Amino acid sequence: MDNRSEAAPTRRRVVAIVATLVGATIAMLLLLPTAATDRDVPRGAAPPGPTPTASERPGAESRMDSEAPPPPPDASDTLPLVASAAPLITAPFPDSASTSGALVDGFPAEAIGPLPNADIVESAIVSGPDAMQATLVARTDSPGADVIEQLRQRWASLGLTQQSASSAGDLAFEGAYETFTLSLQPSSGTGTVYVISAVFHTD
């Protein structure tokens, strides 16, 4: 009986000590995550978030803008400037006149003068304030195809542009200020009779 009465308080003390140790261990386990977090994060600092991507980092947008290629140059800055065409005949125009077998004074022979070895039938000029019309009637022994080809080369060398042939003539050329037409006329004899009509403007 004495041994049992002395052992009972001892067992109770052991149980109390074990319970205390178990409780302390549980409390320590519960406090460990919080303590680790508190040690990793400085006081007053925000908890770490996800790592930003390259496009989200500060200054990423400005670097992309600065590295963007420059815009292509404007087309108007790269195209060569084209000089405006000048009129073949400038004012003042010669006086209106007409004659047979020769060219009237001031006739634009360089542009619509007779072909080599051609006979002048008639020439005329009608002048106005801003325009002049010149007409030449001539005859040549050359066939009509040769007349057309020679005048085509002459008018193209003056910078004029060939237009579509129409009932108004067998050959037509235009410039910025000029209009030339050629008409082949029926001939009762040999050779070719042709008529050149030209209109010259100053603006």
Any idea what the shape is?
flat
Give the tally of β-strands: 7
List low-pLDDT spans. Answer: 1-10, 32-41, 60-64, 75-84
Q: Largest sheet, described in full?
A: 7 strands, antiparallel
Mean pLDDT: 74
Instruction: Examine the coordinates and then state which fold CATH places here, giving the name of the CATH topology of the largest domain.
Output: TATA-Binding Protein
Helix content: 25-40%
Number of domains: 2
Order of helices and strands: HHHEHEEHEEEE
Level-2 CATH architecture of the largest domain: 2-Layer Sandwich
User: Order of strands across the biggest sheet?
Assistant: 1-2-3-7-6-5-4
Structural class: alpha+beta
Name the quaternary structure. single chain
Structure overview:
The protein has 203 residues and is an alpha+beta fold. It has 2 domains: 2-67, no CATH class; 97-201, TATA-Binding Protein (2-Layer Sandwich). Helices cover 34% and strands 24% of the residues. It contains 5 helices and 7 strands; from the N terminus they run αααβαββαββββ. It has helices at 2-40, 60-67, 75-78, 109-112, 144-157, and strands at 97-100, 119-127, 131-140, 161-163, 171-174, 178-185, 192-201. It has a 7-stranded antiparallel sheet, covered by helices on one side. The protein starts with a helix and ends with a strand.
Topology:
Elements: H1 2-40, H2 60-67, H3 75-78, E1 97-100, H4 109-112, E2 119-127, E3 131-140, H5 144-157, E4 161-163, E5 171-174, E6 178-185, E7 192-201
